[in-house]
Each structure stands twice: as C-alpha cells, then as structure tokens.
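Q: What would this chain look like folded?
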Amino acid sequence: MICVVVLTIQTYDYGWSELLVGLIVLLIGVSACLGICSCIKEKMSWSMIDALMLVWWIYVLLQVYFQPGTPCCREVVTYTSLYLLYIVLRFTDVRFGIRKDYMWWILQGTVVYELLLGAWQVYAGTSRHPFFPVTGSFFNPGPYSAVVTMGMMMAIYLLLHHKCNRMALWVNGLILIGGSLMLALTRSRSAMVVVSVMLLWQYRKEVRRYKLFFSCLLAVGALVLLYIKFESAMGRIILWWQSVCIWLEHPVLGNGIGTFNGEYGMQLETFFSSSGHVRSLAQYADATEFAFCDFLQLLAEQGMIGGILCLFIICLSLKKLYREERVLFFAFVALLGFSLFSYPFQLLPYQMLAMVLIARAARYMGGIEMPVWLRPLCFIVAGVLAFCCYGVAKERVEALQEYKQCAGLVHESLIKDYYLLYPLCRDNKQFLFDFAKILQVNQRYLDSNAMLRDGILVSNDPMFWVLMGNNYRMMRQYTDAEFCYDTAFRRMPNRIYPLYRKMLLFQEMNNKKMMVSVAQYITEFQEKVSSPAVDEMKSKARDLLNQEIRSNKNKLKRK
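A: My prediction, written as structure tokens:
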C-alpha cells in the first residue's frame, strides 16, 4: 500500500511514463510474493465488485479488438496494469490486513507531502508550469488541486467527527490551512465547489434553518466562480456539450478506446458549420486532450455499457465505504466530485488511488469463496500479464526518450530514425507532427501527409490540417490545399492562421478576387489572443489589399 502511494507522488507527465513502468515492476514483484502466500489456507472471497472489475476490463479489451482504428496501446497497458493492481491490493488486504487509521495516515501523508512541495515551489519558483506558481508533482495546478481537495475533505470530517490527539489536530489543521492557501494560488473552481459542498453537507442542519441566506450565498458564489474565468467556463460548457454529442453518435458501445481527441475535432467541425455558433461561441473553443468531465469522456469512448459498469462499481464502493470507513468515503467523494469538472482519472496517480479505494471497499463485501488451488493460478496469470505490460511499456518509454533527443531537428538523416520509432510512438501527437515537418522539409509531401492523417486520429489541433494543406500547396494540388485550410478553420474558427495560409494560397494561384475577400476577412478578424504573429499576419493582409487597390487605380488611369 505504501509503495503504491509513494508511486502516486512521483513527478508525472501525461502519456507513457516511468511511473507506469514502476507500477508494473511493483505488480510483478508483489504478484510473485502473493502467489507463494496464496497457498496458505485463508478465506478469500469473490465479491460483486471483483466480478464487475473483471467484466469492465474484458469489455475494454473487446472494444480494442473490435474497433482497432485508433492507436490505444497505452490505454490497454494502463487498464490492464490498473486491474492487476486492484487484484494485488484485494488479496494483500485480505492476506495481511491494513488498519483503518493506517490507511488514513498514509493518504494524509501524501497530501502533506504535496502541500510542502507546493510551498517550496512558491518559495523557490520551481513550479512545473511557467504561468502558475504551484503544481506539486503534476504538470499544471488542476490535478494538484484534486489531491489538496481530497486531503481537506478528510481533514474536515476527522476534525468534526473524530476525537483527534494533538498530532492529528496539528496535521489536519495544517492540511486545512495549507490547502486553503494552495487552492487560492491555483484558483481551481472545481476544488472550491467540492469543498463548499462538503461544508454545506457537514452543516446541513444550519443550512436548512437559514435556507434563504444560503440560497443567496450559493447564487452569488456561482456567479463569482463563473465570471472569475468566464472564457474558461464557457469553453468547458462547449466541451461538455460536444462530448455529449460524441456519445450520442454511438450511445451503447461508444466510439472506441482512445478516440475522444479525434472525435472531438470532427464534432467541432460539425458544430461550427452553423454560422450562428461561429459568431457567438467560437472565441471560447480550443484544442484539448480531455473532456474536463471524466464520466462524459468515459461515455464518449465506452458508451452506456462502460458507463453503467463504472457507476455500479462506484456506487457499491461508496456504499461500503460509507458504512465501514467514512473517512475514505469522503476522500473518494472528493475525487469523484472533482472529476465532474476536470480530468483527474485520466492521470495514472489518481487512477491508482481509485484502485486503492475500490479495493478497500471490496474488502467489506461478501461473496463466493475462492478455491485454494485457484489463488496461485490467478497470480501466475497476473505475473505473466504484468511481465508482458512491462515489455511493452518499457520499450515505448525508451522510444519516447530517444525521440526527445532529436525533437525539433529536421535534418534528412533523422528520417530513418523516425521511421524506426514510428511503430512505438504512433499515439504521440507531437512525435507525428514533428515527423511530418521533417518529411515536409525534405520534400516528401505524401509521406508527411500520411503522418498527419495518423495525427488527426489522436489530436484535435487544427495545425495538422494546416500542415497538410501546405503539403498539397507544395505539390500544386490547390483544391486539396484549400479543403485542408477550410477544415482547419471550421474546427477552430478563432484562429487566424488557416485564413492566412488560404490567402497566400489564392495569391499563389493568382486568384485575386478570392485573395482580396480572405484578406478583408483577416483584417476584420477578432482574434482570441492578440500576439505579434497575429499582428504580422494582419499587416500582410492589409499590404495585399493596398497593393490590389493601387493596381486597380493604375488600370483605371491607363484606360
């Protein structure tokens, strides 16, 4: 248990990571130990949660097998590793047992570590994000806020409902005060909402007594949270709206594991085909990797079947934790509440914490007793699966490290190296984009477009379409180039660059009428974020317009 929690506080980046490899190594070792210990005659039951977890894992594998279009190797390895972690935690808890207060202290120790790390980042200026003073072990303050929220929820419950000794009072007080300061620095609205709901629940009797006052307070608080980051709030509303639309395309089975990013790009294109949506909502849209609501992303990829399995597991776990370990119940509720507005369960540390909490809940469920002979067999299978996952993950992490050494370079000699890394990095959008740029620089335009088409499956960034349009322009396939620029702009109508490239395309085609039309649109364009690059593009458009005006005047004079 301690090893698992220690892994969750390691520095983490999204994607293939050393953390995933470390988890798999831990699983291999523990599976071997438990395989030996499981021969001891001790009761081990197979509960409803165990059955649902197995069904969910098999369902994910079947999804990948029958919908193989999108690269999703990382998702398969992650889901398999998490299921094996669940099995290991279940049998470890049954075989050795972990006291309730030990579980609380381990989780609170994690929170205290993150708070101290955050305080050091504020003091030393060592945050992992250039625009935020604190990120903890994560790459931005959003996921960091989730662990702080979890700790504050646990501290509130312990202070109000448990007799705490002096040390516990100091620790919980530190978590509440330090957590409040960190949430103020991160400005996480999701965390503020979750903590506020917790406080309202704890003081629900007073809330009922002063309904009008608290109703007004909630209304004012909601408006303040909305207008603190109004553009971000509107962006999430659009994101949730489009996520629901993606799910409704295939409501039962979903669109497939790992398909959200590609599907979201296509959905945005459909959405902004309406001119009304462009005028009113385009400025709030942006490229993203997450739905900022984990359950909506789950529905979009796995459909109602995956969603129902997930809900059953969560409900059964919460029910058992509420009865047996209410501190862990509120910890789980904090993460679940946060996940409705953010993406903690897309990140491996929080996925591991979820397995810890679900396995703990399954401990209190009755079930069918597992035969003694079946126990070592389970861990033999688990060990083999973990070993296979280790080979796949280690190979891809090493490939990613090799890619980072040559990222940004465009020399022709690197093309061979990129092709060697390609099978291992097909799900990495930055790798595919860089590979496409190298191929373009070396005039291999068709190969470059092939990489960009792979990139469109794993990213909704319109720059993939812009670069594809540039390739077609180089090959003088102007119709295809125009289509690519139009697609890029339809997907993200708040970006001026696709229009700029389209204007230059018409200039090259000597289509002055269309060039003037696009240039006029660019000069009147209201960009989302102003920058020197945007000013330069507008200046170029104005120069072309002035040049065309002078040309027309000269023609009139000659007549």
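The chain is about 75% helix and 0% strand.
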